[in-house]
Design brief:
Layout: E1 11-17, H1 24-36, E2 41-46, H2 60-71, E3 77-79, H3 82-86, H4 92-102, E4 107-113, H5 114-117, H6 126-132, E5 134-138, H7 152-155, E6 158-161, H8 170-178, H9 189-197
Parallel strand pairs: 1-2, 1-4, 2-3, 4-5, 5-6
The protein binds adenosine-5'-triphosphate and nicotinate mononucleotide.
Adenosine-5'-triphosphate binds at residues 17-20, 25-26, 29, 112-113, 115-116, 138, 140, 166, 168-171.
Enzyme class: transferase
Domain Cytidyltransferase-like: 14-176
Pathway: Cofactor biosynthesis; NAD(+) biosynthesis; deamido-NAD(+) from nicotinate D-ribonucleotide: step 1/1
């Protein structure tokens, strides 16, 4: 426990995502969560197979590489690849259980955009998950918070974090690439270079 702030030591944010590809919306969300929830670190957790959406367009290795490139140089940000190493469908409860066993000294906080916050009641073993961790939920463009619609037990485990609305999604970036349009500045420069070098999302 940090005696000055009253916060537990090792406060760690987990930013889970398909990251197909990672974009500046993810990075700004992680930064905002870090500030609002007083996190010491944020670990980016690329999903192997997402539970609630279609299979990624690119390989696990490519998505991991892009996330590595995006966080390089930002102290406190790093990639945690346990879902890719575990394989199969990436349920958050399995990930959190494994991390808590591996890192008993840390306090974990799962970071989600508001769209995902509204979906939380549908997550696998959500009650157990909400007992293990709290959620840091970021405001996302065009979405009302919807927090009041959630069960009270879940609401009490949610910290809302403000962020400037960033109307960018990986879907939009993939569509732009397919249409031959620019994605410059929507992703960090090293990620832009990687996507171009490897001809990703062209078809
Ligand atoms: N622009 C954004 N602002 C805030 N949060 C975001 C933004 N884009 C994604 N997120 C959040 O980041 C996490 C990972 O998102 P994900 O990798 O699925 O990106 P995405 O842009 O939503 O992808 P896709 O368009 O392929 O569905 C989710 O919690 C999502 O809500
Ligand atoms: O565990 C679940 O049931 C669950 C359901 C939907 C999403 N998640 C996690 O939420 C994170 C964001 O999901 P996505 O689909 O936006 O990439 C990612 O880490 C997913 O594994 C987890």
């Amino acid at each position: 426990m940090d005696r000055r702030s009253g916060r537990g030591a090792g406060r760690t944010g987990l930013m889970g995502g398909t990251f197909d590809p990672i974009h500046i919306g993810h990075l700004i969300a992680a930064e905002a969560a870090m500030e609002a929830a007083e996190l010491e670190e944020v670990w980016f957790v690329p999903t192997n197979v997402p539970p609630h959406k279609p299979q990624p367009r690119t390989s696990a290795a490519q998505r991991r590489e892009m996330v590595e490139l995006a966080v390089r140089g930002r102290a406190g940000f790093r990639v945690e690849a346990l879902e890719l190493e575990r394989g199969g469908v990436s349920y958050t409860i399995d990930t959190v259980t494994a991390l808590q066993e591996r890192e008993p000294g840390r306090e974990f906080h799962w970071i989600v955009g508001t769209d995902m916050m509204n979906d939380l009641p549908n997550w696998r073993r959500i009650d157990e998950l909400a007992e293990r961790i709290s959620f840091v939920c970021l405001g996302r463009q065009g979405e009302a918070s919807g927090e009041s619609a959630l069960p009270k037990s879940l609401r009490s485990r949610i910290v809302l974090a403000p962020m400037p609305p960033i109307g960018i999604s990986s879907t939009d970036i993939r569509e732009r690439r397919r249409a031959g349009r620019s994605i410059r500045y929507l992703v960090p420069q090293p990620v832009l270079d990687y996507i171009g070098r490897n001809g990703l999302y062209e078809s």
